[in-house]
Amino acid sequence: xxxxxxxxxxxxxxxxxxxxxxxxxxxxxxxxxxxxxxxxxxxxxxxxxxxxxxxxxxxxxxxxxxxxxxxxxxxxxxxxxxxxxxxxxxxxxxxxxxxxxxxxxxxxxxxxxxxxxxxxxxxxxxxxxxxxxxxxxxxxxxxxxxxxxxxxxxxxxxxxxxxxxxxxxxxxxxxxxxxxxxxxxxxxxxxxxx
Length: 194
Known about the structure:
The chain is mainly beta. The chain contains 1 helix and 16 strands.
């Protein structure tokens, strides 16, 4: 058995990346060769569209994300839009902030887009680490599912273009439930009641 790594030159989707192997054995006078064995490895991509206040034509530049694996223990390292590996999610500092490793933060361009190539069929999570100026950062991770479909003959896989649309709201955030904002209402209400 052997293993091979798909590199940055891999074909995204389409007919996949075929790999053929065979084994030659015996001495120079009786060399024999096994039949070819072919596998096809697929790799996939998706893009992110960041927009504001429910209007997809109002695209947002400079939103910052990280891409997490399906159990949120690893963060993707991405160079020039291509996945090159995974590293452990760093622990939060004493002030609760996380310093993300190099090449893990993805920033939306002037068209509000980010393209990511080189992914397996799996479930991933996008975490917004910084919202564009004037907008509220998302409080929950966005789930991304890459689920290619088999062709009718079962010999190939296809994935329709996958765009993850992420909306940000502008304006002030309301106090969180159970936070200081609601405590003040409870105190004032109690005083008025007394």
